């Protein structure tokens, strides 16, 4: 009788530990940043901009945000599409409307705390129908000391600003 | 000439843009549904538009920690973009409570597909260009269409007057084109504008503010609820309100209203910059709304119907083009060796068929005859005799093949004297009957070496019989006999039906009789339709007006002509004999269903169709019948019908005129004149006047009607003709 109670206790402790381990894996502390994308006064169609997380080796980790609602044009963002389409990433929940020249868009980006100050970057690549494609229009280091600084874009993006949420 | 330039441009533009136009209009119809489907979504909170911006922001700020954007779309739906748990979310809210109402409307795949096809045909920039071009062509099509309608109607002031009906396609093409003119023009123009905007032909200007960042202050601190702009601007003015990106004073509120953009210091509410939107931006917004119908169910519906009409107009337009017989004229002799010259003014080609038949028979008689269009008028070196056979376009204009005739007559004086005759084709149902033929007659009369052979002869409703009368007379005076055959295209397609003779009444003295027939094939017949009889003996068609007495009993009233093959043959028919004939629909001589009153005017056998109309009448519709005969005895054929109708109140008044029973002759027109005020009253109330009988009587009665209209109604008779209130069937 005592033995069985002990067994039961052990089982429940293990169960709780396993559950906790799982929940920690799922709920690793996250930080979110507000990110402002300001476009230049270029001429042409609305721009497609995709925001991705890049690891210290320069490889894509995941897509953070897609500014563009028509999948027809995604392949134009060649480098990112190769990655995202390659891993069959589900990006439905993180897509928003395109914006035109001179406009701005504010989005919220979330990162795991481990990705901050560890050499990760946030990349903004952009394309406009029948115009040049920018593999790196702007890129921001996930460095808590410098992240609030305005970063100028090279293509359709005038600048990017990020602040902790 | 001028009509044909416009007509060919209209056709050429339509053909060259047809494929793209068809795609754009069909997708356009689909896209017209989208704004309607959006507008009916339940996200509109009534009364909210009068809230001030501050009142709207208050609940939003209370409910959500981090707000990025508040916007109001053209449907009046208010949405916010907020950050919840680190994620961007956008949804509609109730502006009173900030409470979430539902997700943003996603563009349905079918609309996405239709939009892409509509804008770019899936050909990206290339396709965009073609759609823009198609829009421009549509505009030109509409403009050339306006000119064509104006020409057809006889001027821009008559643009909306009733259309002369030739056939289904022609009639509905014109009628519907007029109705949808406005939305089609708007769609075409805004379409062109939006394309020009796309291709940066119209430069888009951004508003840019110059903010003096050195002067930004955080004091005096004010609550946003006390910011003047937010307090005094109502939600209905709002397009978008962007919250400051961060708490730095350099970040500010951006408030986009319908006509301007304002920057507000987030701490003090000071206006940092204010710019009105440039004209192009405002115009573009309008073009967008007008082109898409966004935000308005009514306008979307109008645009949708306009778009839907385009395929219809294309189809009917092409039918008109293909139905218009091509003018193929072959001449055995050159124009300079012919002494007979036949010139044709035709619009649809029917007139040409008659002229061709005439020409063929004249050539058969060994004469040198030349057939040409009136626009081919030139020097005819050997011409002795000129026959002009012409229709009239619209309200008295020259038909397509005669547009330059008048100037050509001036330009090419003939070297030899010649005589001429003019035959006009037209319909008495419309004003300016054969007007152009009379104009031509006047023109030729004034030439010094031209001699009138005879006055203008008119042919009503392409009556082959009338045309035969003229050709026979003409041939006789030229010592010929012609055997014209009826052109095939005008033969009626409906089948022959059998009729059995059930009764006949004769008036030997006047050679007239009333035949009652029973329709045994069940062909539907309405009083006013025509019975077409062709005897084997000569193959020529004769038409008799039918009166439907009910129960498939038809009455025809016939006068025997001394040498009339058909009337004499009919005159011999006995009871129970069967005759085979076709019923020809004669819609323009039916008693209008909705009319409350009508005046029926007939002489002699012209009473036939009226007997039917009266017998199917009820007391609700007041009918007056004027009938002209020689003596009271002439009336006995119809007496029983009329007496019965009066006792059953189917006929209100019967007013006879007898021309031979008293010393001073009384004709129907005299009685019409006497009762002018009563007839005017009927016309004024929208009732109609129907005339059936001889052409002579028609002319006299029309003269009286003309006087009545100007005396009692202050209007021209043509006004009532155009409204279909004057109906005639005369021979």
From TrEMBL, chain A:
Domain of life (superkingdom): Bacteria
Keywords: Signal
InterPro entries: DUF2271 (IPR014469)
UniProt signal peptide: 1-21
Protein name in the entry: Flagellin biosynthesis protein FlgD
Origin organism lineage: Bacteria, Pseudomonadati, Bacteroidota, Flavobacteriia, Flavobacteriales
From TrEMBL, chain B:
Organism of origin: Saonia flava
Cited InterPro entries: Flavodoxin/NO_synth, Flavoprot_Pyr_Nucl_cyt_Rdtase, Flavoprotein-like_sf, FNR_nucleotide-bd, OxRdtase_FAD/NAD-bd, PepSY-ass_TM, Riboflavin_synthase-like_b-brl
GO cellular component: cytosol
Top-level lineage group: Bacteria
Transmembrane helix listed as a keyword: yes
Domain (Flavodoxin-like): residue spans on this chain: 340-475
GO MF annotation, one: FMN binding
Transmembrane segments: 12-33, 129-150, 175-196, 297-322
Enzyme superclass (EC): oxidoreductase
Keyword field: Flavoprotein, Membrane, Oxidoreductase, Transmembrane, Transmembrane helix
GO BP terms in the entry: cysteine biosynthetic process
Enzyme Commission number(s): 1.6.2.4
UniProt name for this protein: NADPH--hemoprotein reductase
């Amino acid at each position: 009788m005592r033995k069985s109670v002990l067994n039961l206790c052990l089982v429940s402790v293990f169960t709780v530990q396993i559950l906790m381990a799982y929940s920690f894996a799922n709920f690793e502390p996250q930080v979110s940043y507000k990110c402002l994308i300001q476009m230049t006064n270029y001429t042409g169609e609305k721009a497609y901009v995709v925001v991705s997380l890049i690891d210290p080796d320069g490889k894509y980790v995941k897509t953070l945000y897609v500014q563009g609602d028509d999948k027809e044009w995604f392949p134009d963002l060649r480098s990112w599409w190769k990655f995202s389409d390659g891993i069959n990433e589900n990006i439905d929940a993180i897509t928003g409307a395109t914006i035109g020249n001179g406009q701005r868009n504010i989005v919220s980006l979330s990162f795991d705390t481990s990705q901050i100050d560890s050499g990760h970057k946030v990349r903004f690549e952009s394309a406009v129908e029948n115009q040049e494609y920018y593999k790196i229009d702007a890129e921001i280091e996930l460095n808590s000391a410098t992240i609030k600084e305005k970063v100028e874009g090279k293509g359709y993006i005038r600048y990017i600003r990020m602040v902790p949420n | 000439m001028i009509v044909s330039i416009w007509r060919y441009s209209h056709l050429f533009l339509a053909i060259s843009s047809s494929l793209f136009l068809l795609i754009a209009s069909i997708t356009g119809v689909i896209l017209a549904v989208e704004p309607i489907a959006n507008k009916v979504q339940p996200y509109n909170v009534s009364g909210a538009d009068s809230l001030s911006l501050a009142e709207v922001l208050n609940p939003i700020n209370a409910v959500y920690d981090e707000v990025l954007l508040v916007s109001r779309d053209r449907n009046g739906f208010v949405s916010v973009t907020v950050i919840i748990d680190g994620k961007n979310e956008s949804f509609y809210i109730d502006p009173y409570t900030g409470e979430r109402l539902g997700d943003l409307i996603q563009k349905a795949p079918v609309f996405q597909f239709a939009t892409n096809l509509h804008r770019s045909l899936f050909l990206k920039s290339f396709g965009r260009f073609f759609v823009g071009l198609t829009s421009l062509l549509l505009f030109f099509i509409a403009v050339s269409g306006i000119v064509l309608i104006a020409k057809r109607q006889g001027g821009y002031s008559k643009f909306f007057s009733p259309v002369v009906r030739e056939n289904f396609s022609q009639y509905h093409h014109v009628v519907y084109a007029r109705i949808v003119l406005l939305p089609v023009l708007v769609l075409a123009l805004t379409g062109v504008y939006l394309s020009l905007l796309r291709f940066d032909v119209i430069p888009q200007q951004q508003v840019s503010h110059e903010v003096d960042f050195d002067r930004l202050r955080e004091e005096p601190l004010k609550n946003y609820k006390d910011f003047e702009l937010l307090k005094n601007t109502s939600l209905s003015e709002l397009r978008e309100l962007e919250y400051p990106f961060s708490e730095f004073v350099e970040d500010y509120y951006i408030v986009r209203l319908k006509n301007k953009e304002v920057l507000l210091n987030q701490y003090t509410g000071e206006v940092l910059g204010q710019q009105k939107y440039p004209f192009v931006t405002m115009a573009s917004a309008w073009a967008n709304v007008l082109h898409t119908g966004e935000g308005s169910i009514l306008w979307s519906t109008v645009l949708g119907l306009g778009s839907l009409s385009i395929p219809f107009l294309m189809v009917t337009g092409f039918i008109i083009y293909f139905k218009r017989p091509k003018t193929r004229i072959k001449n055995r002799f050159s124009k300079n060796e012919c002494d007979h010259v036949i010139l044709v003014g035709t619009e649809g080609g029917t007139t040409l068929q008659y002229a061709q038949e005439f020409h063929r028979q004249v050539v058969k008689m060994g004469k040198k005859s030349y057939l040409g269009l009136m626009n081919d008028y030139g020097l005819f070196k050997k011409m002795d005799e000129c026959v002009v056979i012409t229709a009239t376009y619209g309200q008295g204009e020259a038909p397509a093949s005669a547009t330059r005739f008048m100037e050509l007559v001036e330009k090419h004086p003939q070297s030899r004297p010649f005589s001429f005759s003019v035959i006009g084709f037209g319909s008495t149902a419309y004003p300016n009957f054969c007007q152009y033929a009379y104009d031509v007659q006047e023109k030729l009369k004034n030439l010094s070496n031209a001699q009138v052979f005879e006055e203008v002869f008119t042919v009503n409703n392409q009556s082959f019989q009338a045309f035969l009368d003229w050709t026979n007379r003409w041939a006789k005076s030229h010592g010929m006999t012609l055997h014209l055959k009826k052109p095939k295209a005008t033969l009626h397609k409906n089948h022959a039906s059998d009729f059995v003779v059930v009764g006949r009444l004769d008036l030997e003295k006047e050679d007239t009789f009333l035949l009652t027939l029973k329709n045994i094939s069940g062909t539907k017949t309405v009083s006013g339709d025509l019975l077409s009889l062709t005897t084997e003996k000569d193959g020529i068609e004769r038409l008799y007006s039918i009166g439907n007495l009910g129960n498939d009993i038809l009455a025809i009233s016939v006068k025997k002509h001394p040498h009339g093959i058909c009337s004499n043959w009919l005159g011999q028919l006995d009871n129970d004999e069967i005759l085979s004939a076709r019923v020809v629909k004669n819609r323009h001589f039916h008693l209008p269903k909705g009319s409350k009153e009508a005046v029926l005017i007939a002489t002699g056998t012209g009473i036939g169709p009226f007997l039917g109309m009266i017998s199917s009448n009820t007391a609700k519709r007041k009918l007056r019948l004027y009938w002209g005969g020689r003596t009271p005895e002439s009336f006995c054929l119809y007496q029983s019908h009329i007496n019965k109708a009066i006792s059953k109140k189917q006929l209100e008044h019967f007013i006879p005129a007898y021309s031979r029973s008293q010393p001073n002759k009384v004709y129907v027109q005299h009685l019409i004149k006497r009762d002018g005020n009563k007839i005017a009253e009927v016309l004024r109330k929208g009732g109609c006047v129907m005339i059936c009988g001889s052409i002579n009587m028609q002319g006299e009665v029309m003269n009286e009607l003309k006087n009545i209209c100007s005396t009692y109604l202050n209007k021209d008779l043509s006004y009532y003709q155009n409204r279909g209130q004057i109906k005639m069937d005369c021979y």
